[in-house]
């Protein structure tokens, strides 16, 4: 079986976690995998699309093509699987209105014409089902061999509340900053770390501003004591696949998150983390973890087990192979 992964770029987080990390496993299964990057110029696009008939399956990640462009891709590709890990059919958080005619046109056109869809969560699956019933859920997955458990915190060191993410999700932090500031007033040894390509200003808490790099990602995660994932409760956020939480769990961190979308499935409130719906709950749940080292450790271990059972590469790589095999063998 020959498969082409059509991705945005090799550095894109969605490409790394939804495509690239599966390549070694698929090759072990005898799948010939080629990773192709999308092109900007039409001349380069056509050159790329004219090669797609070489593959049994083309897997498209996230991109919504115009009907004309996808019509051409569909003519060239034998089988097409669409991988969806974000609510790309909606506008991003804060946009008014949240729906877009052009996005829905592209989304509906593609969903009706692909051979199968791999959705990152139940919400995304429910939207796809309006147009295509050949959809399976494959959650965002992490390779636990790349993550080691955080060692016990030195009781004399600073307590670090940490957040790792992209520039586009930095806005979600702003509503909870007042809660972190109040905590710092009562616990001066608490600091805040942001690992990103951009940072927040005017925060009345010691902030460690660390630029994200793939080489230092795991080390940065282990520098946290508590991982956080705030979200707005909107259509765009319900499509999120909680990569941050899985990364926090990978190194054994306790988590406080907004109970939105798949966050509610991964984090069991009071078991392997906490839900926080408003500023008061963010303050309360974070302070509970700050004051209880044993609880932090206990929740972190349970979080790691959650990934081992449901969100690890070992569990989900065979499922991806199974989907590909089924699509390839269908007439």
Task: Give an overview of the whole structure.
- The protein is 39% helix and 17% strand.
- The chain is α/β, with parallel strands linked by helices and 331 residues long.
- The chain folds into 2 domains: 2-141 and 312-329, Glycogen Phosphorylase B (Rossmann fold); 145-311, Rossmann fold.
- Strands 2-1-3-4-5-6 form a 6-stranded parallel beta sheet, sandwiched between helices.
- α7 (177-186) crosses α12 (279-290).
- It is globular and about 65 Å long.
- The two termini are 14 Å apart.
- The mean pLDDT is 95.
Give the overall shape, derived from the CA principal axes.
globular
Class by alpha and beta content: alpha/beta
Count, helices: 14
Q: What is the CATH C level class of the largest domain, in words?
A: Alpha Beta
How many independent structural domains? Answer: 2
Q: What is the CATH superfamily classification of the largest domain?
A: Glycogen Phosphorylase B
Report mean pLDDT, rounded to a whole number.
Answer: 95
Q: pLDDT below 50 for ≥5 consecutive residues: which ranges?
A: none
* CATH A-level architecture of the largest domain: 3-Layer(aba) Sandwich
Report the C-alpha radius of gyration, rounded: 21 Å
| DSSP strand tally | 12
User: Separation of termini?
Assistant: 14 Å
Helical coverage, percent range: 25-40%
